[in-house]
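Technical note accompanying the year-one report. For the benefit of new consortium partners, we illustrate the data format agreed upon in the data management plan: each record pairs a sequence with a structure-token string. No post-processing was applied to the example shown here.
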Amino acid sequence: MHDLTNEEKTCKCCGKELEKIGEDVSEQLEYIPATVKVIEHVCPKYTCRSCSTVSMAHKPEAPIAKCLAAASLITEVIISKYDHHLPLYRQAKIFLQDGIDIPANTLGNWIMQAGSLLMPLQKALWQQLDQVNILQADETPVTLLSMKKQGYMWAYHSLAKKNRFILFEYNNSRSGEVVNKRLANYQGYLQSDGYGGYNKIRAKQEVIPIGCWAHCRRHFADVIKICGSGKAQEALNYIHQLYEIERNAKELDFIERREMRQEPAKPILQDLKLWLEQTEHEVPPQSTIGKAIAYARSQWSYLAAYAEYGEPEIDNNLVENQIRPFAIGRKNWLFIGNEKSANIASLLYSLIQTCKLNDINPRAYLIYVLNQVHKLRRYQIDPVTLLPQFIDKKLLA
């Protein structure tokens, strides 16, 4: 409040007292650095002088036994690494700037212990794969330091409206057996790129395979980058028409979207297929344009399949968007220490990204579930009820 002094509230002309007629209000954002507090839990002891018994109230259980860090501090370390992409050594430096000396290896131990306590949620997430009927799948490489080799983070993204989640799984291999084992009992739509590791599960009678037009489009876009516009541009013109239909159908329900795909999209698909068949014989097979056409031709049944239904997307971009935070983090921390760390990282990425898919604050969510780990351990609470897509949002307020 910036007010006149009592002397200034007197009119300089006639000497009468000034009257307030309004206010001029302006706003300014102020930054207040985060603070770390020490919370003391005091439990008074009582004794009976006659029989020497001692009584004392129980303090709240800490997420990690005999650990200095409360749920809020552990959550801050997790969010900073897996959502804000800050390596632990940088976090340790930031804490030190605020006068708090916490070594990076201590922060790492907190994450490992917290992740181990939350593992029941990973099992609950795996169970959800068989509860939905529309999934997108993809995989991305990651370096494992202990084995000095490249592993892979597999991702499964559910598009089910009432069970939306993203699930990451680390594996040392990119073999198709990884997805075959994980989705052994899955029934429904499975959208993926043209990687051959998905061929076996695509062939299952219970699975409806859907291709990814974004991958197909990139092949032709790469041709234009190298060779300039030409035949590749003709292919892109067809593909752009398909995407324009999708933009117009974005807000429609599944039945209406299928109808729109049946009417304007299928004729475009037929024209594009004919163009591919004719052009394939006009270009060298080993040229960039030849390889782009060969990819589209080999994947055609999967690429065209989306137009027969209303539920699947035209491409796999949604699951790629969920993998992007992991890829950004990978550029900062470069590698994962060992397989156990990779499994815990996959769980934490899954929980954080699933929170975002369901409009839940990841920080509020993790603080709450970390305070429930002892109930999880004693089987007093069903892990499924703590998953971000099912949790009662009122508990996080």
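Partners are asked to follow this layout when depositing records. The first strand starts at residue 45 and ends at 47.
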